[in-house]
Amino acid sequence: MLIRRHPITLEEAQAKLAQLDLTPKTETIPVAQANHRILAQDLKAAYDYPNFRRSGYDGYALRAADDHDFPKIFHVVGEIQAGATFDRSLGENEVVRIMTGAFVPDDAAKVIMLEQTREVPDHPEQIKIMTTQKKDNITPAGSEFKAGDLLIAAGSELNPGGLSLISAFGQTSVTVYAKPKVAIITTGTELLQPGAKPQPGKIFNSNGPLIANLVAENGGEVTESIQIADDYQLLQTNLKRLQATNDIVITDGGVSVGDFDYLATAAREADQLIFNKLKMRPGSVTTAFIDHNTLIMALSGNPGACYTGFYLFVEPVLSRLQGRASQCQKVTATLSRFYPKTNGYDKVLRGTYQFKAGDYQVQLNGSDVSGALGNLQSTTCLFKIPHSHEPLPLYSQVETWLLPYKS
């Protein structure tokens, strides 16, 4: 049965997805497991940090009243190593040996670096300080954060530096947005699993690994990735099963108008059709629908179109489910290499970009064929060529999405 389709623009499709009622979930996890997770609540300092005056060097702590008339011999009345305290007052011409990072006594005004001192022969209880210093070499309590200061804002992606900061306040757990649960169905009787023996008329399943890695790269959790033949009942059975436990089900292939493309029928029978036709290339038959409160994103089986569709439609949803905006930075860029083709529809191309003299410059990255795989490794952006009966002039301004990558 031929399914009637109503084409909408890329922008209209993105707006429809943005209007979906998606509520991010949160969870509390160990700090040690929180790298690259998205913070769900503002993290504030529980107390002043550092919470005591701290020595910046190995040396000797002395009173302000004794900071004059050098060189001078002092009596060493104790030693403070990192992690220890000192509960004795300093008297006239008394100092205490102190280590880097150690607690500085309240009545000490300065730490003289070890390099500015000399031992006194036959008097280990004494030290000769040769000269004073302008700096006090003491880190004040609360010099970096006061109690209640914002440490890391909600929506931030935690990294090793941020986790170190959290650990510095003694926290062992942190509340983050739960990873969106995503299932993947790759359809196609022509598909072979990697590792199988090549066969005439068959191709290896490259889109399944592509989508799985893109989901993981963008903060999702792939709960299951399956490959099925072009069979309507098999498709429906797996859609129903995976909808029950996932936030998103991504399908790949079977979304066009061929005799064995069954996603269009599944979308027609679903609870809510969002869109099933786009005024763009590649991926014009990209489809989105809701069934049993689960979003199904049906991407094109062509690798280039699948890759493009993921970043234009799936990544923004994954980001919303993690409490943040899309990580694809949208900019206006200059077309730095002529693209000679005319377009009946808007065309989104895989490209590379440079940033020169305050301007993003983009160009096509190799092939613009929707089935091409060779340029996916090196693609760093997507850019749109508007529909036109004339080629877009060189150096035109084009809408561009800079793609996110983990460092």
TrEMBL record:
<comment type="function">
    <text>Catalyzes the insertion of molybdate into adenylated molybdopterin with the concomitant release of AMP.</text>
</comment>
<keyword id="KW-0460">Magnesium</keyword>
<keyword id="KW-0500">Molybdenum</keyword>
<dbReference type="GO" id="GO:0005829">
    <property type="term" value="C:cytosol"/>
</dbReference>
<dbReference type="InterPro" id="IPR038987">
    <property type="entry name" value="MoeA-like"/>
</dbReference>
<dbReference type="InterPro" id="IPR005110">
    <property type="entry name" value="MoeA_linker/N"/>
</dbReference>
<comment type="similarity">
    <text>Belongs to the MoeA family.</text>
</comment>
<dbReference type="InterPro" id="IPR001453">
    <property type="entry name" value="MoaB/Mog_dom"/>
</dbReference>
<keyword id="KW-0808">Transferase</keyword>
<dbReference type="InterPro" id="IPR036688">
    <property type="entry name" value="MoeA_C_domain_IV_sf"/>
</dbReference>
<dbReference type="InterPro" id="IPR036425">
    <property type="entry name" value="MoaB/Mog-like_dom_sf"/>
</dbReference>
<dbReference type="InterPro" id="IPR036135">
    <property type="entry name" value="MoeA_linker/N_sf"/>
</dbReference>
<feature type="domain" description="MoaB/Mog">
    <location>
        <begin position="183"/>
        <end position="320"/>
    </location>
</feature>
<dbReference type="Pfam" id="PF00994">
    <property type="entry name" value="MoCF_biosynth"/>
</dbReference>
<dbReference type="GO" id="GO:0006777">
    <property type="term" value="P:Mo-molybdopterin cofactor biosynthetic process"/>
</dbReference>
<protein>
    <recommendedName>
        <fullName>Molybdopterin molybdenumtransferase</fullName>
        <ecNumber>2.10.1.1</ecNumber>
    </recommendedName>
</protein>
<dbReference type="GO" id="GO:0061599">
    <property type="term" value="F:molybdopterin molybdotransferase activity"/>
</dbReference>
<keyword id="KW-0501">Molybdenum cofactor biosynthesis</keyword>
<dbReference type="GO" id="GO:0046872">
    <property type="term" value="F:metal ion binding"/>
</dbReference>
<comment type="pathway">
    <text>Cofactor biosynthesis; molybdopterin biosynthesis.</text>
</comment>
<dbReference type="Pfam" id="PF03453">
    <property type="entry name" value="MoeA_N"/>
</dbReference>
<keyword id="KW-0479">Metal-binding</keyword>
